[in-house]
Structure prediction request, 174 residues.
Amino acid sequence: MRHCFHSAQSRGVHGNIKTPVNNLASELVGLFMEHKQNAQSCASRKEKESHSRNLPHHVHAARQRWACVTKERMCSALCVNPQSKAYWSNRQRDCVFGANLDAFKTKFTGFSVCHPIYDDHIMLKLMQHATYSAAQGQLPTAILLFLLNWANRSANSYMGVFHEHKKYCTTGAR
Prediction:
């Protein structure tokens, strides 16, 4: 996080932020406090756990090595892999740590991974946006989506998007 903070600072990102950036320590405290508040407002334990979705370093390394993943979508400053070239967050203040804001405002391009919070609406919107990006893109695009089904609900809505766009989609679902 220190590297992300200083990299954003050296690129001049901190100068464009409305509420002034004090220092790394105060930004980290704010980040952890907001994370704790978000977790407390979750309706279920599983939803709460989805906000802490860090994956082990060896998983990130394998994705980079074998799938050429260089970007993370729907991430936060707390769970971004430091080796990622770019990441997108919905938390405004994460730009202090180099985040791009709102993954849905741009087409997905290149090779990226997306591990969203457990929210059916967001996951469906993500599936639709990813397939739209792949269908409309001019460059090779691969998006690894981790869509959770903790409640053992039907995945028909996701699979409906998948079946409509089989030309652009493949699944590892069991």
Remarks:
- The chain has six helices and five strands.
- The mean pLDDT is 80.
- Residues 2-164 form one domain.
